[in-house]
Amino acid sequence: MTASASPIFPSIVRPFQLEGCDVRGKLVRLGVAYGDILAPHDYPPIVARLLGELLALAAALSTSLKYEGTFVIQTSSNGPIRMIMADVQSSGGMRAYARYNAEDIDDAGDATIAELLGTGHIAFTVDQGPDTTRYQGITAIEGESLTDCANTYFRQSEQLETEIMLAAEPGGNGRDARAAALMLQRLPRPERSIVDPEEDDEKWRNAVVLMKSMSADELLDADIPTDQLLYRLYHETGVRVFEGRPLRFHCRCSRDRVANTLASFSADDLKDMKTDAGLIVATCEFCRTDYTFDDDQLAALRPAN
Ligand SMILES: [Zn+2]
Predict the structure, then answer these.
(1) From ligand 1's centre to the CA of 12, what distance in Å?
(2) How far apart are the CA of 291 and the centre of ligand 1, in A?
(3) Residue 206: pLDDT above 70?
(4) In the chain, what are the domains?
(5) Which of 109, 113, 174, 227 is least surrounded by CB atoms within 10 angstroms?
(6) Is the per-residue pLDDT at 125 higher than 80?
């Protein structure tokens, strides 16, 4: 590789800890993982951008999974973008898709999140299998951006004080797509080393101010390596980085899963779903894979009938 080669934007969650100030954090950068998620779709840029920010938010929060499981964020609202769903597995697989009304999307520029999504909510769910509790947090859609919305959610619901910045640039058709999140969390009180509450508060505020001094362009700049970005912001305090978790696009759909879903429909419903050629074509909303079933295959799904 020559010095002029364009650097690769990674797909990673990098945990870190600021020295001497009881603040830890996550830096998320999504390159190929985000591009691969966009590639099967043809989203308007403004939809792709919001989807990227939601993915980065999901990636930042997914590392709180203590066991194997899936962290899911889903918006639900009445605006031009009716729904975005993003999920991240503890193994690093992630996927997302958006539902929207193309004719209502104005790609002119800086629409607020309320204009894009309308009135509704964002739900946060942890799914750790059938025998475990699904924790769900929920927040109203409000503010200028998804960053505002997420920070409002943290203030209302998290036990840990948390601040986040989100940014995304979808590039063209998934090429050069970049999304990122920088999240700071204050350690729980019993774990803090600073005894003086004023000093403790000031160090937290200072860490947040430094985070906010960074622009979205810097967060998304492939020329600034991930660790270098943290060092730029926090070299005075000192920052310790921990091993990152790689992320990638991974859809969990399969022919068997689609077959199980189809088996739950009545024979009449299945008839209504058929194409003119007499087939049922089920398309995965995440990866756009088509699963086709003919009459014989459908009959095999329903041996009891
Ligand atoms: Zn799929």
Answers:
(1) 22
(2) 10
(3) yes
(4) 12-249 (3.55.30.10), 255-301 (3.90.1280.10)
(5) 109
(6) yes
Q: What is the pLDDT of residues 47-75, one digit of tens each?
A: 999 999 999 999 999 876 666 889 999 99
Burial of 211-250, coded b for 16+ CB within 10 Å and e otherwise, reads beebeeebbbbeebebeebbeebbeeeebeeeebbebebb
SS3 of residue 163 by DSSP:
strand
Q: Ligand 1 centroid to 37 CA: how many Å?
A: 10
Residue 15: beta bridge partners?
26
Tens of pLDDT, residue by residue over 208-230, are 999 999 999 999 999 999 999 99
For residue 289, the CA-to-ligand 1 centroid distance in Å is 6
Gap from CA of 251 to ligand 1 centroid (Å) = 5
* CA 257–ligand 1 middle distance (angstroms): 10
**Torsion sign (Cα): 259, 263, 266, 267:** positive
3-class SS at 140?
Answer: strand
Least confident range from 143-152, 188-197, 211-220: namely: 188-197
Q: What Cα–Cα distance (Å) separates residue 191 from each residue in 143, 155, 160?
A: 32, 20, 12
Rounded distance from Cα 286 to ligand 1 centre (Å): 5
Q: Give the Cα separation of 219 and 166 in Å (integer).
A: 9
CA of 95 to the centre of ligand 1 (A): 9
